[in-house]
Amino acid sequence: IERLLMSSSDLIVFESGYSAEVFRRKVGDPSGLSRVVHNGVTAGEFEPVAVTAEATDLLFIGELRHLKGVDVLIEAVGRLHSRGRPVTAAIVGAGTERAEFERQVHRLGLDGAIRFPGAMPARQAFALGRVLVVPSRAESLPYVALEAGAAGKPLIATAVGGIAEILGPDAGRLVPPDDAAALAEAILATLDRPEQTAAAAAALRGRIADGFSVDSMVDGVLAAYAEAMAARGQR
Questions:
Q1: 77: Cβ contacts below 8 Å, ≥ 6 apart
Q2: Distance CA 106, CA 100 (A)
């Protein structure tokens, strides 16, 4: 169906370079114009969110699915506890696999360290943890990473999908997916180097403001439409 639609389309807009590459690999090279216009966040999302007094060290926000790497995060926390680092985490979201993750928490003896507050808006959840962790096995261009980065929250994420496009020159600090040991080391580095962590969060916030705002997204889409209309007029 996408190949048929592509043949009659003047323009295809992708939200990330990653999605554009997946499209080319699975569907084919677009027959018309194609442009990458990154998702954007609103001005209000750049307002910092203060954490609560009971905030955990780590925060996950998303669907409670294996694809999102929740089990990898739980295992990483367990590894840190076994090394004498009582790291805490809040896992925010809902999903059919929640019970399985709760059993994993209990099996690892982490009931007092990891809690499941349920689903809620991202900015409300930001108050529950100090560092956002995106341990996904697969992603496209996750809005939660943009929202957290805009709010100035430190980010630990895996090197999947278009996340590297969000981090830009700092993409080298992304963690391999499905690797609890590497995730545990990244958590330690983030928690033990507060000045570097704050500097990285500030740099990410600036990068999102420059290239991932709603204004940038709207300008990019309108420019792509104008280019497609001009090309149609020439034909």
A1: 58, 87, 88, 89, 108, 110, 113, 114, 184, 187
A2: 10
The backbone torsions φ and ψ at residue 231, rounded to the nearest 5 degrees and listed phi first, read -65, -40
Angle made by CA atoms 16, 17, 23, in degrees to the nearest 5 = 95
pLDDT score recorded for residue 212: 96
| pLDDT reported for residue 234 | 81
Is residue 235 scored above 80 in pLDDT?
Answer: no
Pull the structure tokens for residue 116.
């499941």
Amino acid residing at 43? A
| Torsion sign, CA atoms 105, 56, 160, 184 | negative
Tell me the torsion sign for CA atoms 129, 167, 209, 11.
negative
The three-state (H, E, C) secondary structure of the chain, written as one string:
CHHHHHHCCCEEEECCHHHHHHHHHHCCCCCCEEEECCCCECHHHHCCCCCCCCCEEEEEECCCCHHHCHHHHHHHHHHHHHCCCCCCEEEECCCCCHHHHHHHHHHCCCCCCEEEEECCCHHHHHHHEEEEEECCCCCCCCHHHHHHHHCCCCEEEECCCCHHHHHHHHHHHCECCCCHHHHHHHHHHHHHCHHHHHHHHHHHHHHHHHHCEHHHHHHHHHHHHHHHHHHHHHC
pLDDT band, very low/low/confident/very high, at 7 (cuts 50, 70, 90): confident
Closest alpha carbon to 125 in 133, 117, 134:
117
Distance CA 228, CA 208 (A): 27
